[in-house]
Amino acid sequence: MPIKLERKHAFPIALVPLMLAVGFILFKLFTASKVTNPETGRTHRIGLNPEQEQKLGLEAYAQVRHDEASKLVQSGSEVELVKLVTAKLAKAAARKGDIHYDWEVSVIRSAEVNAFCLPGGKIVVYTGILPVTQHAAGLATVLGHEMAHATSRHGAERLFRTEITQTLLGGVQGSLAQMDPVKRQAIMAALGAGTKYGNTLPFSREQESEADHIGLLYMARAGYDPQEAVAFWQRMDAQRRKGSTPEYLSDHPSHSTRIGQIEKWMPEAQKEFVQYNHAPAA
Ligand SMILES: [Zn+2]
Predict the structure, then answer these.
(1) Signal peptide: which range, if any (predicted)?
(2) pTM recorded for the entire structure
(3) 3-class state of residue 73 by DSSP
(4) Between 154 and 267, whose confidence is greater?
């Protein structure tokens, strides 16, 4: 009977796209590992192991330094301040979980109001953000938040949500430098290398919230008054209201809930501030 024959052939053919999609999802799930954040307890999947992620972060960092070579600030008070705050926050981050990063920071002379931290702990600060951070505690707010994106492996989480991971894991592409510019740009954007490389994959609300939370704990633990985080975000918001949205906000959208959430975490941060900085001598 012809009808039977038709059914016999039509059935599997119609299923092919679905099978491919299921296969792709299963491949992603089996090649991904689950990580639990030591600070917040949130569990998420990532598509890269720490070595792959750090290699990629290091390559992206080299690319940024290459692209901005003429604007790199080598020494001076700005570099000293940025390095000091980074070192204190790095120590604070290592207090919980298994965070052994080779932290490094570059300062770029630019009016851009921006800063970011790549996977593996490579940080870039644009001098344009310093008038907004105003002081060490303001800078600790930004760097704590950025370092939390890295320690929480948000870049790898974002990459996992794209098909780029498969290309990377397939070993087809060697390094970032050898990739075609479009792909390189997409990966740089996913890793969070600033608006210069595109903003096609902004951090999710959940990741932003987690970075705010952990960043607040890092700064408090490092000895900076966590209340300064509220003041910093208010200054940032004031810039936006004046009509000039800072690059930092276009990459990290400002939510009306942000300050409210920070206030909610404030008692926890204050506790850490006292525990790590004013504990009575044993
Ligand atoms: Zn962020």
Answers:
(1) none
(2) 0.82
(3) strand
(4) 267
